[in-house]
Amino acid sequence: MKRLQAFKYELMPDGEQQRTMRRFAGSCRFVFNKALALQQAHYAEGKKKLSYADLCKHLTEWRKNSETQWLSETHSQPLQQTLKDLERAYKNFFEKRADFPRFKKKGQSDSFRYPQGCKLDQANSRIFLPKLGWMRYRNSRELMGAVKNVTVSGKQGKWYISIQTEREIDAPVHPSTAIVGIDMGIARFATLSDGSYFAPLNSFKRQEIALAKAQRAMSRKQKFSHNWKKAKARIQKIHARIGNARRDYLHKTTATISQNHAMIVIEDLQVKNMSKSAKGTIEAKGRNVKAKSGLNRSILDQGWFEFRRQLEYKQAWLGGGVIAVNPRNTSRTCPCCGRIAKENRTTQAKFECVECGYANNADLVGAMNILAAGHAVLACGERVQQDRSMKHEPAEGITPVMV
Length: 403
Known about the structure:
The protein is an alpha+beta fold. It has helices at 15-44, 52-64, 76-94, 203-219, 226-260, 271-274, 289-302, 304-318, 362-379, and strands at residues 2-12, 110-114, 119-121, 126-129, 133-137, 146-155, 158-168, 179-184, 190-192, 197-198, 263-267, 321-325, 350-352, 359-361.
């Protein structure tokens, strides 16, 4: 079977290369926004959506136009890949996998991609990128497989390359035969049905005071001044520390769980809906807004969606599987007698059945019920297919898990 995998490294460009990469990223952002505006104008006029080939014709005109001739300074491949990204965004929207495409902002997800023309010299830890030349990178791990494409991205003042590779591997066979249910929570990040659990990292909460202090300091600076830019860089550094700590913790946790269990049963949580604001509207104001906003921050700080994504692709690579079950009443059902009642969960952490008196930790009871639901799916012979793309960040895509 073929495996798509991405290897991410930090680039070490010189000053001129950094300026060129910022210009390339800006050109790609300009092309994306201009193409999106053109698509919206066609829709407003009742015309059909422009295809990728049609947008490429417009791109050629933009590169020749005297007003936007500076686009010709950017390599054509990243600009064309930007149009492909817009085409993919529309497809995901029409297939109800994502929201409607939005205009890109400067400084947010600055990136561009080369599908070909790159040369890799692993022995000397350097890479050749068209119109950028040879550039050194931090060779932190060995790259495996044939190079498919290279994505250059800028974040928090640093530049990275993500090299997507493809290689042929034998069909994996999971080393374990165990099955486990997992209940996600706030007080306990992940509770397993075997009684073990992982404590939450709360990376944002740990840096919240420092972040607020840095943001107040930036608010007192004159916008776009030298001191304002230094203050902004400090905020970006804190955000990078928060994100890196969260990703590191999630990778370690998911690796431990996936290596020890062939089958993992989780709740099919709609994190986006669970973390929606409770403010409401001007006419109908929300209730418990402050408490809900605190809960939303805690949910997003845990990284539940990323946890599931990592479990799915790691299980696929190891030969295991992931089953997502309906989360309804998993924390209200007694695993002993099967009684479903709101009163069974007396507190956030305590479960005590009003029918048979069975008592245990509420998160553990939820994990046990999730495991039972997973056994029911397997016993009925149902096929569960994940809708999410199980990408190893930031790979293009991996074959979905089928259980």
